[in-house]
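Fold this sequence, please.
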Amino acid sequence: RAFVISEYGGYACHIAGHSSVERVFGYKKLDTTEELSKAYKELYEGQVLPLIENGLSGVVYTQLSDIEEEVNGLVTYDRKVVKIK
């Protein structure tokens, strides 16, 4: 049986000067892009990839870019910094 995880992640990494807010919201707060990249890799390898053998067909990371109220995107609000390496 195929299934999709329609929302996962939500790790916050505030990049000074590239956000519309100073308040940080996320399921996990990371201080640097290196920490974010490491945490994302651990999440993906540890929790997402093992589900493929059970029929996982797709995943959607929350969210592609930061928005006005959240800094949990893979790209900053102004789209100038890609946070995942």
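The longest strand covers residues 3-9. The chain has a mean pLDDT of 92.
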